[in-house]
Amino acid sequence: MIQLFVVALFTLVHADNNASYVVVVPKSVRGNSDFVLDVTLLRRVTTDVTVTATLSDLRNTAIASAHQTLSTAEVHARITLKLPRGLTETTYLLTVVGRGGLDFEEATKVTTTSKTLSLFVQTDKAIYKPGQKVLYRVVSVNPDLKPFRGPVNVSVFDMSGNKIQQILNRVNESGVIGGELQLSDQTPLGNWKIKVSAEGNEFEKTFEVSEYVLPKFKVSLDLPSYYFINT
């Protein structure tokens, strides 16, 4: 018989010959997201097994808990912990307890991932000339890829680090925020920067302002003096 408690990427934490189960968990947690554990029984049991997972801080204060019961006909369970926003600790303790047809108890430490959402910035061009208009949009999504509907801050800086534009606490139900910046004819040349932030997460995108000239080219076609018509 094999007993395993596994942290993601299948790092073995414990093993002995007294029971037969496998628990697979992520090695890190992220606020405002689902923390999913997989429990598999490697042998059939004669009575139901209730598996309880609890995430707590190192002071033994529970942050989230959930349980699931495996019947005698089941060998696999997926337990989902709903984690709150704003996990402040860097390390938490995960405890998994099984009671019933198979008794076990395991615990391991998991680390915190500070990133709670993803921010993206798109511009309509990579290079702009002085006097042109910069069109951009900010896309913000939660870890489950659903739109982030909270406030987002946007700032635009010139090549010297001077703040040229600022938008504070912009909210959009779709998670997409559009903006524009009209460049003057005397705009300083160089790499400009769009910086966005939300809930402690930040993202930057640069674009170039340059006196560029689009390349010109000529295409000559030498066509035959006749053509066909399909009827």
Helix-strand layout with pairing:
Blueprint: E1 3-7, E2 11-14, E3 21-25, E4 28-30, E5 34-41, E6 49-56, E7 62-70, E8 76-82, E9 91-100, E10 104-113, E11 118-123, E12 127-128, E13 133-141, E14 152-157, E15 163-170, E16 176-182, E17 190-198, E18 201-209
Parallel strand pairs: 1-3, 4-10, 12-18
Antiparallel strand pairs: 1-2, 3-5, 5-8, 6-7, 6-9, 9-10, 11-13, 13-16, 14-15, 14-17, 17-18
Query: What's the arrangement of strands in the largest beta sheet?
Result: 2-1-3-5-8
Number of beta-strand segments: 18
> How many distinct domains?
2
Bulk shape: elongated
Cα Rg: 28 Å
CATH topology of the largest domain: Immunoglobulin-like
Walk me through what this model shows:
This protein is mainly beta and 231 residues long. Helix content is 0%, strand content 54%. The chain has no helices and 18 strands. The strands form four sheets. The protein has a five-stranded mixed β-sheet with strand order 2-1-3-5-8, with no helix packed on it. A hairpin with a 3-residue loop joins β1 and β2 (11-14). It is elongated. It starts with a strand and ends in a 22-residue tail after the last strand.
Which features characterize this protein?
mainly beta, Immunoglobulin-like, 2 domains, 5-stranded mixed β-sheet, 18 strands, elongated, 231 residues
What is this structure, in a nutshell?
This protein has 231 residues and is an all-beta fold.
